[in-house]
Amino acid sequence: AALLGSSAPGWIKKQALAPLTVSSVNTASDEVALWPLPQKFQTSVDAFRLSSASFQIVHAKESTAGPSCSLLQNAFRRYYSYIFGNGRKHGKNLENVFDADLAELQVQITSADPECDGYPSLKSDESYQLEVNQPTAVLKAASVWGALRGLETFSQLVYEDDYGGQNINKTSISDFPRFAHRGILLDSSRHYLPLKVILANLEAMAMNKFNVFHWHIVDDQSFPFQSRTFPDLSHKGAYHPYTHVYTPADVKMVIEFARMRGIRVLAEFDSPGHTFSWGKGQTGLLTPCFSGSSPSGTFGPVNPILNSTYDFMTRFFKEVSTVFPDAYIHLGGDEVDFSCWKSNPDIQKFMDQQGFGQDYRKLESYYIQRLLDIVSTTNKGYMVWQEVFDNGVKLKGDTVVEVWMNNNVDKELQNVTGSGFTAILSAPWYLDYISYGQDWKKYYTVEPLNFEGTAEQKKLVIGGEACLWGEYVDATNLTPRLWPRASAVGERLWSDENVKDVGSAYDRLVKHRCRMVRRGIPAEPLYIGFCPHEYSGN
Amino acid sequence: VFPSSAFSFFCQTLLLRVFHEVEQAYAVWPMPQQMSQSTDRYPINPQLLAFSYARDSAAQSGCSVLDAAFERYFNLIFPDFVGLSNIWSEPKPFTVSVKVKNGECDGFPDEGSNESYNLSVSAGQAVLKAESVWGALRGLESFSQLVYQDDYNLYFVNKTEIEDFPRFQFRGLLLDTSRHYLPMPAILKTLDAMAYSKFNVFHWHIVDDPSFPYQSRNYPDLSSKGAFHPMTHIYTQSDVKRVIYHARLRGIRVVPEFDSPGHTQSWGKGQPDLLTSCYKGKVPSGTFGPVNPTLSSTYQFLNGLFKEVTSVFPDSYLHLGGDEVDFTCWRSNPNVQAFMAKMGFGSDYTKLESYYMENIVNITAALNKTSIVWQDVFDYRERIPMDTVLEIWKGVPADYRAELGRITLAGYRVLLSAPWYINHISYGQDWRNAYTVQPQNFSGTEQQKKLVIGGEVCMWGEYVDATNLTPRLWPRASAAAERLWSDEEKTSSVDKAFPRLEDFRCTLIRRGIQAEPLFVGHCKHEYSGL
User: Which residues belong to any copy of the Beta-hexosaminidase eukaryotic type N-terminal domain (chain A) (predicted)?
Assistant: First the structure.
C-alpha cells in the first residue's frame, strides 16, 4: 500500500499514482470511505480543516463554466450542505494538529462547452481529476457531468473529527467510470411511487454515481403516466385518476431533478405484453381473447394485426419522445403470453395470411418490427429486453439489449455482443428478490465481462442495472430495500474490475451507508453495529 | 347558514341509494370472536362525535387510560379532521358510551388483565362494555376500525354487534435494541402499531452481546462502556419510563429481557470479572465467554441488577434468557474446571448452566417476579420453579410441536415464538406462514393445551434498525396477531384473510405506520414519508 507520510515538495511526482490503494494506518483517514472506489486514488496523512464559515466551492478562473451555470451552482450548494450539515455549527477546534485550512474547492470545466444546460447521455464524459492540497483543492472535468461525480467524491473525502470539525486529507484522484450505463430500475405500475420517493432515490443514486433512472412507468397493473394525447390512458388505467398519476409537470420535475444530478431518465413503455392497464383507456388496443368461438371478455397483449394499433403507437410515441429528452426509449418486449393470440380467430387468419404458421414468435417479431420503425421516425434509439433479440427481430445497429434472464447469462451476452449489439446486464441484480442476510455480497461479486468473447465484444457491454420490481415494494419499504444493496452494484459498474475484495468493501460500505443515513436516506444496515447519527426519519 | 337538516337528510338518502354498492363488511383486524353486521349504516359527524363514560361505569372522567384513549381514537378515526364542519354531513350527534366494571385506571396491565369487551353500534350511538379499562381499549380499537369514509369523505359506521375476547392472554412482540440501537420514536411508534393489532406484551430484548444500551442506576458503567455510544445510544431511566408509560396507556405490558449467561459480551465491558476468562492452554487468551457462574460476586451483581430492573419495570415477569450458551470458554478455564469437580458435575457443562440458571431464577423469585426463559433451560432439565414460563424459539413445526408437548406435559406454561421469527425475510407473501401457525396443534391433553399462554413475534436486530424496522414488522406481525387473538376455526382461511389484511395495512398507513404492501395494488392514501 502506498501510504504517503510526508508532504515534501514534488509529492505527486515522487509517487507514481498507485491504483486502488486506500491508506489505512492513520485513524483520520480511516474515517474516509469512498464509494464507489475511484480508479486512481492517493492520499496522505496530512489533514486540512474546513471552516463552515469560510469554506467555499467556486468556479475556477480558467473554467468554461461560471455563475450562470445553474446546474453547478445548485450542486455547489447541495454538496456544501452534505459536508457541513444543514446549518450545523461547531466550535473552534482547540487542538491545532492541522497544517492549515482548506479554503476552497475550485471547479474547473475544461471543454469549450461545459454542457450546463444539456442532458447527460450515453456518451457523456464523467471523468474528473481531483487534487486536494492546501490552500485550494482543484476539481477538473471536461464537462459538468464529470464535475458532479468529482463533487460527490470530494464530499466523501471530508470526515468529521471528535470535536465535530470537518477535515480532509491531502489527496489526489483521477477517476472515470468503468461502464457508461449504470442504472436503477423503479417500477411505478405495480405500486404507485409518490414523487417524493422517486426524487429521494435520485439523490441516493447520485451518492452512488448511478447515471440512469430506468423508469418502468407503466405495466399491467396501472398506467400512471398522464398522456396529453391520450388522457384516458391514465384517467382509466391508473389506480386513481388524480392521486395516483404522474402529470406532465411531475415528469418534468423528475427529469430536471435527475439532470441536475447527471442522471438520465430512460422511460420504458413495455409492449406488446404487460399492457393490461393500457386497454382500459384505449379501446380496441388489446387482443380480445376467445373462449371457443366467442370472446371471453378478457384481453391479451396488444393486438398486432390492426392498423389502428400502429396509428395509436405512432401518436403515443411521438408524444413520449418529446416528453423524455433522453436519446433512448425502452420498448420492453418481454414475457409475451401467446395463449390469447392463439385463441383469437382473426389473429389466426392473419397468421395464415402472413405465412407465420403456428409460430407466434413471428407475430411478436412482426409487431416489434413495426413498433421499432415507428420509434425510429422519432429519432430515438431504443432499448429492449432480451427476448426481442432472441426472437430474431431485425434491430437497428445502436439498439441496446437488456439481458435479464438469469439462466445462461454468459451465453446470452456472448450472443448479443457477437451479433454486434450493445448489451446491458440486469439479470444478476434483481433486487426485489430479497433473502435473509448479506445478499449485497452476491451482487458485489458479479463480474459482467466474465463471458467468453473478444475484446471487441466485451466493449459492447456498456453497463448494467439494478432492478427493483414493484410487486412487493412501495413508498413504505422501497428506499431501505434498495440501499445500500444497490450500492454494491454501483461500485461494480463504476470501479476497476480489480476492486472486488468483499472484506474491504464491507468496511467502506458500512460507512457509506451511514453517510447516506446522515444525508436523510433510510439505507438499511448491512449487519450488527451503529451509525454515529442514526436515522431519525420517523 | 346553508345546510338545513332536511337538505342534509335528502343528500344522505341520495347517497345511500346511489352508492349502496360500497357496502362491504367493514372488517376488524384481528377478527373478533363474535361479530354480526348489517348493511344499515349511520353517519358520523366528526364535530358531533363524543366519547363518554356511561353513568353506571366504574371509571369516570379523570380515568387516565380512557381519557387519553378517547383523544387518541378521535384522531385515529378522523385522520384529516381540521375542525371545520362538513356541510354535507349529518348534523346528528353520535355517542360512544363506555362502561367498565372495574374502575382501576392507574395500574398496569398484567397476566390477569381481562381484555374482553362487548360493542354494540346502532343509530347515533355505540355502547362499549368491558370488565376493565384494558378491555375497553381493545373495544375502542375495534370501533375505530369499523368507521369508514365513503367516496365523498363522509364518515359512516354500520350497525354492528361484537362480543370479543383474546384467544391467548400473552400476545407479544420482541424488539432487539442491542444489535442495533433503536431510537425512542421507533419504539414508541411500534407500541402504537402493536395496539392497532391488539398485541399486549412488548418483549424488550434490551441488551445482548453487541451493546448494552440500558442505563443502569446502580451500574452506570454497563452502558457508559457497553453501549455503542455512552450518550447517544442509550436508554436513560426517563426513556425507559416513557416507554412503560406509553405502553401502559395502550394496554401493553413491558417485559424486559436481560439474557444471560450467554449473549453478555457487552456486559463485560462495564463490569470487570463478570465474564469467564477464556484460556488458551494455561494462560488467559484475553477473550471472554459467558458469565462466570463460579463466583459469588457474579450473583451479588446479578442480585443488585435484577433488584434495580424489577423496580424499574413494573411487570410481574422478567425474561432471563438462558439461550445458546457456548461451553468452550467454560471448558478452557481451570477455575471453572475446579468448580465443576467440586460440585460433582463431571464434564457435563449443561449442569453448570443449570446451576447458574437455578440461581438467577431464585433471585428473581425472591423479588416476587415470574421468570420467562428460552426453551434451552427446559431442555437441560434444570430444576426451575413451576411458575416459570418457557419460550420456544427453535425448529420447524415438527420440532416445536414436540417441544410444546414435552414442556406442557412437565406442567410448565409455554410461549411459542419459533414460527414467528419475522426477522427472517424472503421473497413473496411470507405473512401466510405466520398466519397458518396452529399453536395448540400438538399431541397433549386439554389441560396441556391450556398451558400454551400465547406467543411472540420476534424481530431480531442483526439486519434491522430504524431505517427498515417498521415496514419489516408490519403487516407481517399483524398476521401473527390475528392468530393469537382470534378464533382459529373462523380464521382458518389465509385467502379470506388476504383482502382484510390488505385493508388493514392501508389503515395502518393512514395512521402513519409505514406498513409494506402484501402484493400489487394501492391504498387510497399512500404513505407519504420516505
Answer: 34-157
Looking at the DSSP assignment, which residues form a beta bridge with residue A425? Answer: A403, A464
Distance of alpha carbon A113 from alpha carbon B368, whole angstroms: 79
Helix A248-259 vs helix A195-207: crossing angle, to nearest 10:
10
Percent of chain B whose predicted confidence (pLDDT) is above 90: 89
- CA–CA distance, B181 with B234 (Å, rounded to integer): 8
> Minimal CA–CA distance to B121: which of B250, B28, B16?
B28
Among chain A residues, CA nearest to B469? A524
Q: What are phi and psi of A510, to 5 degrees?
A: -60, -45
Q: Do A480 and B527 touch (CB under 8 A)?
A: no
In this prediction, residue B142 carries a pLDDT of 98
Q: Cα–Cα distance between B92 and B70 in angstroms, integer?
A: 19
C-alpha A332/C-alpha A416 separation (Å) is 16
| Cβ of residue B80 closer than 8 Å to a chain A Cβ | no
Output the nine-digit C-alpha cell for B479: 398476521
User: Looking at residue B13, what is its pLDDT?
Assistant: 39
| Tally of CB atoms within 10 A around A14 | 10
Separation CA A137–CA A134 (nearest Å) = 7
Predicted local confidence at residue A26, as pLDDT: 38
Reply yes or no on whether the pLDDT at B88 is more than 70.
no
Single-letter code of the amino acid located at B162: I
Cis peptide before B397 (omega within 30 of 0): no
CB count in 10 Å sphere of residue B123:
11
Which of B324, B456, B462, B516 does the annotation list as catalytic? B324
| Mean of pLDDT values over A314-335 | 97
Shortest Cα distance from B70 to chain A (angstroms)?
Answer: 24
B471 interfacial to chain A (CB closer than 8 Å): yes
Q: How confident is the model at residue B433 (pLDDT cuts 50, 70, 90)?
A: very high
pLDDT value of position B261: 97
Partners of residue A436 in chain B, C-beta under 8 Å:
423-426, 463
Burial B241-259 (b: 16+ CB within 10 A, else e): eebbebbbbbbbbbbbbbb
Q: Band the pLDDT of A27: cuts 50, 70, 90.
A: very low
Grid cell digits, residue A300: 391479451
pTM, full prediction = 0.92
Query: Amino acid identity, residue A383?
Result: M
Q: Could you tell me the maximum CA-CA distance found in chain B, to the nearest angstrom?
A: 94
Active site residue A335: yes
Q: What is the dihedral of CA A472, B529, A80, A465, to 10 degrees?
A: 10
Residue B499, preceding bond cis, omega within 30 degrees? no
- Number of residues assigned to chain A: 538
Q: B40-84, pLDDT tens digit by residue?
A: 999 999 989 999 999 999 999 999 999 999 999 999 999 887 766
Cα–Cα distance measured from residue B211 to residue B265, given in angstroms and rounded to the nearest whole number: 8
pLDDT digits (tens, 9 = 90+) for B124-167: 999 999 999 999 999 999 999 999 998 888 899 999 999 999 99
| Residues whose CB is less than 8 angstroms from the CB of residue B472 and which lie 6 or more positions away in sequence, other chains included | A477, B422, B423, B425, B459, B464, B516
Dihedral of the alpha carbons of B103, B105, B111, B115, in degrees to the nearest 10:
60
Q: Please answer yes or no on whether B522 and A191 come within 8 Å at the CB atom.
A: yes
Task: Indicate the helix (H) or strand (E) that contains B256.
Answer: strand B253-260
In chain B, residues 245-304 whose CB comes closer than 8 Å to chain A: none
Instruction: Write the CB contacts of B466 (distance below 8 Å, at least 6 apart in sequence).
Output: A522, A534, A535, A536, A537, A538, B180, B182, B183, B185, B186
